[in-house]
Amino acid sequence: xxxxxxxxxxxxxxxxxxxxxxxxxxxxxxxxxxxxxxxxxxxxxxxxxxxxxxxxxxxxxxxxxxxxxxxxxxxxxxxxxxxxxxxxxxxxxxxxxxxxxxxxxxxxxxxxxxxxxxxxxxxxxxxxxxxxxxxxxxxxxxxxxxxxxxxxxxxxxxxxxxxxxxxxxxxxxxxxxxxxxxxxxxxxxxxxxxxxxxxxxxxx
Length: 204
What we know:
Order of helices and strands: HHHHHHHHH
CATH topology of one domain: Tetracycline Repressor, domain 2
Number of helices: 9
Number of strands: 0
Radius of gyration: 20 Å
């Protein structure tokens, strides 16, 4: 039994390693230019062995997109859920910003694939990922609607544009975040302050 468990753990570690390597390679090279052989070579396994874990390149990229997206959203949900039921709309929004930013930093290879691949995916995979992205957008729409309902967001603000504004800032984090210039928590706080208060100096 112990040996079987060890073998299972080893297979899971190999699968996880393959997912991360493939996410990075797909993100850099694109879907068409990436082969299963290339990924297997990077993982240090025989080319045929990769098919023990994934039956095709389409299945592999589908799992990268789904699994990676879920990991990032999990960070967001954990931050929001930790606040408890008595949290204000603004507190939940701020927690969601930090949660998604931390997920993107921790799972950078998956985030790179998400940012680069959507237009290159096979049709069935792309359709599933568009639906997943729409669910994620609805999550943010809900956070913004709660802000408006609680009086923390002006009623004349277009929620669609507000979502694009905040997610555009968050999702580009890999291209500009430098932990030596400030913690992720501080960056998220400043980003939210600018969202709520603007950038003009206060009167007086």
